[in-house]
Amino acid sequence: MVVNGASTFKSSVTIMAPDTQPASLWASTSTITPHLYVSTTGKIGIGTMSPDATLHVVGISSFTDKVYIPENKIYVNGGTTGQILKKNAGGWLEWGTAASAGDNLGNHIATMTLDMAGNTFVNVSSVVFNKSVTNYGTTTLAGVTNAGYIASSSQTLSGQLTVNSTVTILTPDGNTFASALWVGTSAVTPHLYVSTMGYVGIGTANPAARLDITTPNGSPAFTINTFTLKPISASEVGLYDSAGEEVIRFDEGN
To answer: Is residue 27 part of a domain?
Structure first.
């Protein structure tokens, strides 16, 4: 049936086309490209007479309400593994690479474990850890308020460290690390040094005894009550009273 003009049907319309025909419905103002095309295999084409999917649309589509698509049912041509769909200046989605800039967490309170996946924190002025932090790399922070910290590698704290609990330092034995603790204002000579062998050095990074104090001649090594022990030379040490008078001298050669 060919109708040359507007048609009105006041009931439902059922179209039954034989399989031998390519289309069961063609609606258009042209015999070349249909506005709506229904093939006899059940595929619907909008703007095409060769639909290769259940619904094949050629042209811009607009949805004014929700579109529900089952999980893992969206396929987009183009792109490479790892790329993401990004909005371009024209408002369209196109394949692109995720921005390399760090996540802008801002004033963020995490509700789950934060896994940096091998990435690092940089330009951190302060961090508050209310639970343990497990670290497998080097940490450099300008300030840390920490209630529980587990580190498995060398840590550098370039600022004040406030720990609101007991501090336990466990360092592997052997040659993995030279020291368990280094406290000082210089990377050359520590104020306090604890070796992995259990030797404590004050003013030295090479303690030769359980407690090894190295200080310039004439400078107090340590004080007991009102008495002060000072090195006099490389082989002499003097014990002085509160008035600065030498009470006794120890000479390595005598």
So the answer is: yes
The pLDDT of residue 86 is 87
Which of left, alpha, beta for 106 (phi over 0: left; psi -120 to 50: alpha)? left
CA distance 105 to 240: 59
| Beta carbons within 8 Å of 218's beta carbon, 6+ residues apart | 230, 231, 232
In-domain check, residue 69: no
pTM: 0.42
Rounded CA gap, 139 and 122, in Å? 9
Confirm whether 4 is domain-assigned. yes
SS (H, E, C) 115-183: CCCCCCCCCCCCEEECCCCEECCCEEEEEEEECCCEECCCEEEEEEEEECCCCCCCCCCCCCCCEEEEE
Q: Shortest CA distance to 127 belongs to which of 140, 139, 110, 145?
A: 145
Supply the DSSP symbol for 42.
Answer: S
Specify the number of domains making up the chain. Answer: 4
Residue 9 pLDDT more than 70? yes
User: In the sheet that 36-39 helps form, which strands lie side by side, from edge to edge?
Assistant: 23-27, 36-39, 44-46, 55-57
Predicted confidence (pLDDT) at residue 148 exceeds the cutoff of 70: no
Question: Do 182 and 150 share a structural domain?
Answer: no
Task: Quote the domain boundaries for residue 32.
Answer: 1-60
Least confident of 9-23, 84-98, 153-167, 201-215: 153-167
Would 95 be classed as within a structural domain?
no
